[in-house]
Design a protein that fits this description.
5-stranded parallel sheet, binds 2'-deoxycytidine-5'-monophosphate, 16% strand, alpha/beta, 3-stranded antiparallel sheet, single chain, Rossmann fold
């Protein structure tokens, strides 16, 4: 195991390594956020959680009474909405039309609504354009479902992170427990299955593994080991 300083030394003198686009895709609970944040810290990259954008739009729809099933209205709403992702002390702050919604988008209700909002092609169109703008200069770790397949198909490093549904449900359940939210483990597993199905069966940009991605199964790995593996792969890609 290397110290943080050793890792910075390991990465520090490689210019190509400073400008990669690293795409991390995978299903809910696979550990994408924790790993992507850590990789961003180790490499000094910007971290972009694209799921937070779908969640923010879903929150706005729920609050403003726009039906989650009204595709045309959601597309208009997406065009009228400003979502900013800001780096803050190694985490990401999410601003919806200027309001800090970092915590508000993390409820099970918003998660479910986000998975419905995300099936609307015109919504994806708007948000994917934003994501491309945000990541085009490189030096970025972007996580989502379609980053390696649609948003940045030319990304130098594509990781598809996965884990068994049971482990993913347990991780999600623990997160809610830590926040003091009363959620049921069996129900969480059911929701994981529901969201997996919706994310992978939608017509536009379904969750698919890009053929040139590296698959990492994190069922028996902790996030730190996965993050360091990704950094090692990044270094290899940067030559
Ligand atoms: O990763 P997450 O749970 O915060 O994502 C919320 C929802 O948004 C989830 O159902 C999948 C969807 N999503 C997507 O379709 N494409 C992305 N690039 C990111 C998230």
């Amino acid at each position: 195991m290397h110290s943080q300083a050793e890792w910075f030394a390991f990465c520090g003198d490689n210019t190509a390594l400073k400008h990669l686009i690293i795409a991390i895709d995978g299903p809910v609970g696979s550990g994408k956020s924790t790993v992507a944040r850590r990789v961003a810290t180790l490499l000094g990259y910007i971290y972009i959680d694209t799921g937070a954008m779908y969640r923010s739009l879903a929150l706005k729809a729920l609050r403003s009474g726009v039906s989650i099933d009204a595709a045309d209205k959601l597309a208009v709403l997406a065009g009228e909405t400003r979502i900013d992702l800001r780096a803050q002390d190694g985490t990401q702050q999410v601003l919806l039309d200027g309001e800090d919604v970092t915590a508000a988008i993390r409820t099970p209700e918003v998660a479910l609504a986000a998975s419905k909002v995300a099936v609307v092609p015109d919504v994806r169109h708007v948000l994917v354009a934003e994501q491309r703008r945000a990541g085009q200069s490189g030096g970025v770790v972007m996580e989502g479902r379609d980053i390696g397949s649609v948003v940045f198909p030319d990304a130098k490093l594509k990781v598809f992170l996965t884990a068994s549904p049971e482990i993913r449900a347990e991780r999600r359940w623990r997160e809610h427990q830590q926040k003091g939210d009363a959620v049921d483990l069996v129900r969480t597993l059911e929701e994981i299955h529901e969201r997996d199905q919706r994310d992978s069966q939608r017509a536009t940009s379904p969750l698919v593994r890009a053929s040139d991605s590296v698959v990492i199964d994190s069922t028996a790995m902790d996030a730190e080991d996965v993050a360091r593996l990704v950094v090692t792969l990044a270094k290899e890609k940067a030559g």
